């Protein structure tokens, strides 16, 4: 709710202390540069998660690969490893240069988590990983599985019967529910997904068709999580996947970085002191972008610059970071409505866990208007023939924010990057899209087309 006092201070006081809040509350696009960012080694002193934890998660996914390949035939070509493509989008880049009227230096690449197998979004990383880890823990404890086994044995009635005694629950704006619902049902778990009001009907229908229990809420994501957590706690055989606090989810996302490193090497894209890497990640509660960004920092350290992207109507991570209050404040506290077409990002209160981990590692956060997301969606189809969901386009404007705003240019200057930008690489993390039904997608496309043609008339 819109409050007169937020943690004891009036909005005016908040603005005086943190001037960026004025534009945020006026629902204007901003680029906020993180004043607390430190060099990698300094920042890591305050973080207890390490590269070993990420490697452990990577190993676990390798153990499960034979099972994944068996039950999800679309992963056979990658031998059960759930990974997405990375490629250059030169046509899109040229289009944006003319649209934003200015040169955008460096390579522009798209990381297509939108086309990840099984659930078509970045949630196929963290969500699936955490369910697999939980299944492995249970099966090891029961003595029906050893780490050295070929995990394809999990695709059997013995295991399905065993897992059917347990349930998995999760709160979601849609995509996390989709990914956890699909993998849990495949293993044999009973699974309940608590869906916020933003969740699209087709996602609920799809889950129900797979035997998943879907509980619908009229309120936003935070409420769906809270209720799901409460209900799950009442049942000792129920495991709640906590998108706001889960380290496992985070580690599942972070594995992406180890694989991206290989992809960049294969493409002969250099990342070092003279070849900076910029990554733009759409952010909801923070787990997905936080995990990926953390993994990237472990590998590329000070040579990677990570920015989160949020809708102007749901800037929860930005509000949390800029006020230094993380999950103690919500966008609603500041009178912002949390209503956006970017359903994957429609979160009013960020994860405090992620806020803390990223506090000294993140380069900044920027916001994007919904209309911009529609336009970019349509433009990407027209230039590259790639269909993404609106949330996933939030990353696309990152490069123009960097080159076209005072804050962006100041960041490059202060970080000693100005003369290295010709050698820079920019990765837009495309977080979802391939599972959106065609008619739904064509509606988005049409809206973007309309907005663009109206602009041309003016
Ligand atoms: C969930 C999601 C995100 C953001 O991930 P969080 O962990 O919520 O920050 C971004 N894009 C899409 C399409 C998503 O579904």
From TrEMBL:
The keyword 4Fe-4S belongs to this UniProt entry's keyword annotation: no
Q: Which UniProt keywords apply?
A: Lyase, Pyridoxal phosphate
An MF annotation (GO) of this entry = D-serine ammonia-lyase activity
Catalysed reaction(s) here are:
D-serine = pyruvate + NH4(+)
Modification N6-(pyridoxal phosphate)lysine, positions = 123
Q: Which PROSITE patterns match?
A: DEHYDRATASE_SER_THR
Q: Where is the Tryptophan synthase beta chain-like PALP domain?
A: 103-402
- What is the top EC class of this enzyme, as a single word? lyase
| EC number(s) from the headed UniProt entry | 4.3.1.18
InterPro entries referenced in this protein's UniProt entry, alphabetically = D_Ser_am_lyase, Ser/Thr_Dehydratase, Ser/Thr_deHydtase_PyrdxlP-BS, TrpB-like_PALP, TrpB-like_PALP_sf
Q: Which residues form a coiled coil?
A: none
Family membership: Belongs to the serine/threonine dehydratase family. DsdA subfamily.
Q: Which NCBIfam families match?
A: D_Ser_am_lyase, PRK02991.1
Q: What is this protein called?
A: Probable D-serine dehydratase
UniProt lineage = Bacteria, Bacillati, Bacillota, Clostridia, Eubacteriales
Q: Which gene encodes it?
A: dsdA
């Amino acid at each position: 709710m819109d409050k007169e006092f937020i943690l004891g201070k009036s909005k005016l006081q908040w603005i005086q202390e943190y001037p960026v809040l004025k534009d945020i509350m006026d629902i204007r696009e901003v680029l906020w540069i993180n004043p607390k960012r430190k060099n990698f080694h300094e920042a890591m002193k305050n973080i207890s998660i390490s590269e070993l934890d990420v490697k452990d998660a990577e190993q676990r996914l390798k153990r499960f690969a034979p099972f994944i390949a068996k039950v999800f035939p679309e992963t056979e070509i990658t031998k059960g490893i759930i990974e997405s493509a990375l490629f250059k989008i030169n046509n899109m880049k040229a289009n944006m240069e003319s649209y934003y009227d200015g040169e955008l230096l460096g390579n522009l690449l798209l990381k297509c988590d939108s086309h990840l197998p099984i659930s078509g979004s970045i949630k196929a990383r963290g969500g699936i990983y955490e369910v697999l880890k939980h299944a492995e823990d249970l099966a090891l404890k029961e003595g029906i599985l050893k780490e050295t086994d070929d995990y394809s044995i999990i695709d059997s009635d013995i295991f399905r019967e065993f897992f059917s005694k347990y349930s998995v629950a999760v709160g979601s704006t849609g995509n996390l529910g989709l990914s956890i619902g699909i993998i849990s049902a495949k293993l044999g778990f009973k699974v309940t997904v608590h869906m916020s009001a933003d969740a699209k009907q087709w996602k609920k229908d799809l889950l129900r068709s797979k035997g998943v229990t879907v509980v619908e809420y009229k309120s936003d994501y935070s409420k769906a999580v809270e209720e799901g957590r409460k209900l799950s706690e009442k049942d000792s055989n129920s495991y709640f996947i906590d998108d706001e606090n889960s380290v496992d989810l985070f580690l599942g996302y972070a594995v992406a970085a180890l694989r991206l490193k290989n992809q960049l090497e294969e493409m002969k894209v250099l990342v070092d002191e003279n070849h900076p890497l910029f990554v733009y990640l759409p952010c909801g509660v923070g787990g997905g972008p936080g995990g990926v960004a953390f993994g990237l920092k472990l590998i590329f350290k000070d040579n990677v610059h990570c920015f989160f992207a949020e809708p102007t109507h749901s800037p929860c991570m930005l509000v949390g970071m800029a006020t230094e209050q993380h999950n103690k404040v919500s966008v609603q506290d500041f009178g912002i409505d949390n209503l956006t077409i970017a359903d994957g990002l429609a979160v009013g209160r960020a994860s405090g866990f992620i806020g803390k981990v990223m506090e000294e590692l993140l380069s900044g956060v920027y916001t994007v208007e919904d209309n911009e997301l529609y336009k970019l969606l349509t433009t990407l189809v027209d230039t590259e023939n790639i269909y993404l969901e609106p949330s996933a386009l939030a990353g696309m404007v990152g490069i123009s924010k960097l080159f076209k705003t005072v804050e962006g240019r100041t960041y490059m200057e202060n970080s000693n990057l100005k003369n290295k930008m010709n050698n820079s690489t920019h990765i837009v993390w495309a977080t979802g899209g391939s599972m959106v039904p065609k008619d739904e997608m064509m509606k988005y496309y049409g809206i973007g087309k309309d907005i663009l043609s109206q602009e041309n008339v003016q």
